[in-house]
Amino acid sequence: MTSQFLQFDRTGNPAEVLQLQERKLTPPEGHEVRVRMRYAPVNPADLNFMEGTYGRAAHPPCTPGHEGCGEVEAVGDKVTSLEKGDVVMPLVGTGCWTQHLTAPEHHFAKLPPQIDQVQASMLRINPVTAWALLKYYTELPKGAWVAQNAANSGVGRAFIQLAKHLGLRTINFVRRAELVDELKTLGADVVLLDSDEGVAEAKKIVGHEPVMLATNAVGGDSAIHLMDLLSPEGILVTYGAMSRRSLKVPNKFLIFKNLQLHGLWITKWFEKATTAELYQVLDPLVRMIETNDLVTAIDEIVPLAEYQRAIKRAQEGARGGKVILDLA
């Protein structure tokens, strides 16, 4: 029995270095589980990994794909936590762009059998990042204001939905005015252009109410806008650098506002999280997916054989959501 997978032998432009390969499958042994992968999104982290610009260096030949979803097809004779037919989410970090994935059983999280597998394939990175941003840095009372830039990103959209679920109010900065109504429909309370004028308007809206948490995925002037909006003792968490501009902190924000600056890389969180901690995060997110309270927008589902089209589409701007590889 053979299986197809995507692989790159050198770093570079993903559309040029990625190749479709085939290999012979072997039965899982011991604690190994073989999963028939169904869907996997194309994330910015996947593109950066192939380009050689990701936080963790690639050592080609590599199979990309930081997240996905599939069903257990076969198990080794010592496996106790999973059985054939279980729906699972890989926790391997990379390697999900394959029709079959074999790994030790503890590298998979079991999901409800009825879950939407396309939505589940996008659960591991963006929703978990948004959850960590909202839950791990400060305790916020219901009705509290939280702010973010890159509100139209995958994490940003999850942040809006989770904040609403937790009873928080969101101030969302975007670069394009046409996103305002769309994000408000998603549950955003305030959507403003990421500009000096937008910050001034946000200050008018919140009045004397504090803004104690802001999340930054852009850097540069956009991060300064968030620091300007934050209240004294507020917290800025940086989890991305879309502008590729460094985070520069004006002295006044440290001296007079005593802002706290943190960084989040969800890959490191997964490496350190215990099984109990993992399911404390996954369980409420899974329930939200099942009730359609957490929905990730999809631009297009592309067959594995057309992977080059999927990559090129993922590299384009102004998409309507995630590009998904159909690995069937």
TrEMBL record:
Signal peptide: none annotated. Residues 13-325 form the Enoyl reductase (ER) domain. GO terms for molecular function: enoyl-[acyl-carrier-protein] reductase (NADPH) activity; oxidoreductase activity, acting on the CH-OH group of donors, NAD or NADP as acceptor; zinc ion binding. One of its GO terms (biological process) is fatty acid biosynthetic process. Keywords: Fatty acid biosynthesis, Fatty acid metabolism, Lipid biosynthesis, Lipid metabolism, Metal-binding, NADP, Oxidoreductase, Transit peptide, Zinc. Its cofactor is Zn(2+). This is enoyl-[acyl-carrier-protein] reductase.
